[in-house]
Amino acid sequence: MPYPSSRPDAGLTFTPTRRHDTYPAIDPKKRDCRGKFVLITGAGKGMGRSVAHSYAQAGASGIAVTARNQSEADTVCDEVIALAQQTGHPQPQVLPLQVDLCDRYSVQNAASVIQKQWGRLDTVINNAAYLDPFVPLADSDESGWWRTWEVNVLGLYRITKALLPLLLQQENDGDRTIVNVSSVGALALTPGASAYQVSKLAVMRLTEYLMVDYFDQGLLSYSVHPASVATDLASRMPASVVKAVCVDTPELAGDTIVWLTSERREWLAGRTVFSCTMGGIQFTQYLLALTLVISAASSAAAPARRSAASGWPSQVAASVHDPSWPEFIEETERWSTYPSPTFDSVFIPTSPEELSIGLQYLSSTNKTWLAKSGGHGYSATLQIIQNATMINMQNFNYSTMQPDLTVKVGSGATFQDMTVPVANAGREITIGSCPCVGATGAMLGGGVGRLQGKHGLTSDAVRAVRMVLYNGTIVEASEEVNPDLFWGIRGAGQNFGIVFETTYQTFNQSNGGIQYNADMTFTGEHLDSVIDAINSLYPLDPSLALPSVAINLVYAGSESEGKKFTAKFSNFSTTLQESMIPWVDLAYKSAGGAVAAKCTKGLSHNMHDSVTESVNKTVFHQLFDSYGSFIAAHPALVNSTVLLEIFGQQGIDALPQNYSAFPHRGRLNTLIAIEMAYIDNSVASIADDWARGWRDTLSSPEVAGYDRMVQYQNYAHGDEPLSALYGYEQWRHERLTRLKRTYDPMGQFSGYHAVPETLDGWN
Fold first, then answer.
1. How far apart are CA 312 and CA 320, in angstroms?
2. Is residue 200 flagged as an active site residue?
3. Which intervals of the chain are annotated as region Disordered (predicted)?
4. Following DSSP, what letter does each residue of 679-717 receive, concatenated?
5. What is the CATH number of the domain that holds 586?
6. Beta strands in 54-207 (DSSP E)
7. pLDDT score for 723
8. In this predicted model, what pLDDT tens digit does every residue of 399-419 receive, in sequence order?
């Protein structure tokens, strides 16, 4: 008689919203884990690594990671330190531990190290696991089948037994929490998976016994189905299972576990918590344990999507939502919370036609709106947008190479999204240093980047755009069609409509797509030498990019040629790391990943920018000293940076001044971005005062080397003269104002560095 048939929904679908990625309700940056000391097993990669990252972002004071490979543990600890500091937390105490859970002495040694180094422990995350390839029981290898139990059950038993005394010691007023990572597989019957699935069922039962034995001593234990992630461990499953099941991100697992353990949740103790709804997976009819799913709002089922579409045209009503929608916070979140526009509805169009209908409706109601591409705009002018409709362009996230080697990019795509298909075609294009910035938003302001010396700005490569005007009209702009609008789009484009698709020219890759990268650090005593070396490079080789005391030097060419530039710094650098990196990976890997780490959302980022002809040695010395003293006095601002971007100018300057609305050809040598980043808003005012003061000093003619202030629009704060952003020439003012009157006569696109509607407005 065959086993009872499976069915697609085994009672594990508790909410209509199915989570596959992290979401605002479990954002670790909103949790407070200060003072907590945590151990995570199996943290060298995969979900364990993600858990460590999440604790770092939540401010945990101590994070110990175990891995079978010491180098993996060391790497994760380095990442943890960097993430904590980037999120504005003090550097945590880290312990990288090489541990074999099948070796009792290795486990005991790890416990001794934690006892000696910390003398306390709040939380243990038993994440390490082993999975033998799926085969029927009679075909299985006994050693592999039993090794699954040695790691998943006996290993968990050993580490828990070794650390329980430290967790429960009376003088430790800690959280006394254990999280055992189980699996949805514990509730499934998958052919060939007996070793893994039965061992994970045992983990769930062992979690309950910990509560039976130690609850009266304050212990809380949970078992967790963290997520279904395509990790190295999962690769041992049949490919068909991986494809069908492993659809979640590791961040979902990490952030869920930090949410669970950030405070004592006795109502969940001894139970199994699911980070995501699993209704789409085949299970038998026999459930073997109580499960709970934590939704965005509470343990109850989340409400279905509620619409804010009262009055909206029926064609788009389903794409409009109000704050009661469970996804509302996530879909309206932006990179910076300084100074935040606010939203009472979100419109997520699925096509240009929907976008057209939506804009036509919004214009008829005088409702304020803001379009979101990457969400990285941080100008102070955005604070005038309140109780608005966000137009989230996420459904326009595509980048497609064309037969003529151009690339069509939707306005929901980031620079990294754009880079991948271009690189796969053996081509390249100028992109910004940060991979998660929206490609379209950056292009509208010009688009500086490492390859601009060879290919000009990102906007210089634009061949056509398609956009929707305030009244819903869909138009194209290029050199042949609406050429005046096309001129204005490239440098002032946010003023005239919403661009939903851009066509770019691409270029043959330099050096086969492999670029030389050198990361160098220096002590303050060598600052003069560093500045002299930087200034000696002007005018920069068109293949060279020098975003700068740590320096990241990138040369779009061979290693031997790149080393010629590094040699100018090698005599006084304290560290030098050289590598050859594929162009497609450069944004994430250059500068040790520090720029990419800035993609973290939720901080306040207050930017002030200056553009200078060169680096003034005397003033930069003063800035260096002032920065050090200021951060020491205000540690909540430790994540703030002063960034120098020095790129080649040849590709920009090769084009005439009237080529586009971008006004700074011939005077964009050095971009100095002062970024104040923080979580604690009590430092907002003093941070703004310090950054503004230095912005004004650096922009003065005697320091900048230009007769009047020059500002790169995408980095501008918003209180500068508009001519500093768009150019001082009268003909520019006249042309831009004429375009504003023509394409945005109602001033609907005026929330971000608005072009004046009259010439008097330029004053």
1. 8
2. yes
3. 1-20
4. S-GGGHHHHHHHHHHHHHHHHSHHHHSSSS----GGG--
5. 3.30.70.1060
6. 62-67, 93-98, 123-126, 177-181
7. 97
8. 999 999 999 999 999 998 999
The last residue of a domain, from among 274, 308, 330: 274
The Cα 640–Cα 678 span in angstroms is 7
Compute the Cα dihedral for 162, 165, 168, 169 and give only its sign: negative
pLDDT higher than threshold 80 for residue 216: yes
Q: Residue 4 falls within a domain, yes or no?
A: no
**Which of these, 393, 435, 387, lies nearest to 411 by C-alpha position?**
393
pTM of the shown model? 0.61
Q: What gap in Å lies between CA 679 and CA 674, rounded to an integer?
A: 17
Rounded CA-CA distance 384/341 in Å is 7
Helix, strand, or coil (residue 174): coil
Please give the structure tokens belonging to residue 17: 């919203």
How far, in Å, CA of 15 to CA of 12, rounded? 9
Largest CA distance in the chain: 91
Question: Which parts of 149-212 are beta strand (E)?
Answer: 177-181
Mode of pairing for the β-strands spanning 406-410 and 399-401: antiparallel
The full length of the chain comes to 763
Is pLDDT above 60 for 136? yes
From the list 196, 222, 378, 504, the catalytic residue is 196
Output the domain CATH number for residue 175. Answer: 3.40.50.720
Question: Quick one: 157 exposed, middle or buried, by C-beta within 10 A (0-12, 13-18, 19+)?
Answer: middle
Report the domain count for the chain: 2
> Which residue, 251, 274, 297, sits at the end of a domain?
274
Of the CA atoms within 13 Å of residue 734, those in its CB half-sphere come to 3
The answer to whether residue 702 sits within a structural domain is no
| Domain coverage including residue 570 | 513-599
Which pLDDT tens digit goes with each residue over 742-763?
Answer: 999 999 999 999 999 999 999 8
Report the C-alpha gap between 627 and 633 in whole angstroms: 10
* Residue 18 belongs to a domain: no
Helix (H/G/I), strand (E/B), else coil: 223 = strand
The verdict on whether 196 is a catalytic residue reads: yes
Residue 739 has pLDDT above 60, yes or no: yes
493 occurs within a structural domain: no
Catalytic residue among 200, 372, 408, 454: 200
